[in-house]
TrEMBL record:
EC number: 4.1.1.97
Protein name, per record: 2-oxo-4-hydroxy-4-carboxy-5-ureidoimidazoline decarboxylase
Substrates-to-products reaction catalysed: 5-hydroxy-2-oxo-4-ureido-2,5-dihydro-1H-imidazole-5-carboxylate + H(+) = (S)-allantoin + CO2
Domain of life: Eukaryota
Compartments (UniProt record): Peroxisome
Pfam families: OHCU_decarbox (PF09349)
Main location: other
Entry's Gene Ontology molecular function annotations: 2-oxo-4-hydroxy-4-carboxy-5-ureidoimidazoline decarboxylase activity
Claim: Ubl conjugation is one of the keywords in the record: no
GO cellular component: peroxisome
């Protein structure tokens, strides 16, 4: 297991209701004070995939400590994203894998994304659904130059297919903003499940 996966697994196992010992730091509790005290490397190991494959955002936000609470940490991530030029926002969208795409088939999704796919039933599509999803994802990407992004944990596969069909008809600026809204929803749930693993939407409830 790589350091990042190990740290995340330790934190998931050891953090309960935001106040239980983190095994990597036996002397501290992983409440907001403990999060604020993390060195950058560990902060990034734990929170680096809150925005998919964008640990740079986590490393940048680390310098905004101390955070009053988890909401403040989430707000710092959102503000960082909002301050990016449009090309930066599109870059973030391009870091997300296609839903039910090549990474799912090749088992190369990140842990978070794999759990989100499973939550929406995207790992169990019929061949007809898989074909439709693949065509629409391709059509969307050709039209906009970035992949369709939606918070899978807040939708089921039927809903995702419907949204994908409808959103293909939008203007590029509308879709860029819409995609970033979805990125923030995904980040919110990822943060919650890291720090509050007993939350109703946490992946360990699968
Ligand atoms: N393309 C896309 O929306 N991907 C993502 N959505 C989600 O909830 N997890 C992802 O990886």
């Amino acid at each position: 297991m790589c350091t990042s996966a190990l740290t995340q697994s330790l934190v998931r196992r050891s953090v309960r209701a935001g106040h239980v010992t983190n095994h990597k730091y036996p002397h501290i509790n992983m409440d907001i004070d403990a999060i604020n005290a993390l060195p950058c490397e560990d902060f990034v190991n734990i929170f680096g995939n809150v925005v998919e494959k964008c640990p740079l955002i986590t490393a940048a936000v680390w310098s905004r400590r101390p955070f009053a609470n988890l909401t403040a940490l989430e707000a710092a991530i959102s503000e960082f994203i909002d301050a990016l030029p449009e090309s930066g926002k599109e870059g973030i969208l391009r870091c997300y894998p296609d839903l039910a795409g090549r990474d799912l088939q090749g088992d190369t999704l990140t842990r978070e994304s794999r759990e989100e796919h499973a939550r929406a039933g995207l790992d169990a599509l019929s061949s007809g659904e898989a074909l439709r999803m693949s065509r629409l994802n391709w059509e969307y990407k050709v039209r906009f130059g970035f992949p369709f992004v939606i918070c899978a944990r807040m939708n089921d596969k039927a809903n995702i297919l419907q949204q994908l069909t409808e959103r293909c008809r939008n203007e590029r600026t509308v879709e860029r903003a819409r995609g970033i809204e979805e990125v923030k929803k995904i980040s919110h749930l990822r943060l919650q499940s890291l720090v509050l693993p007993d939350a109703p939407n946490a992946p360990n409830k699968l």
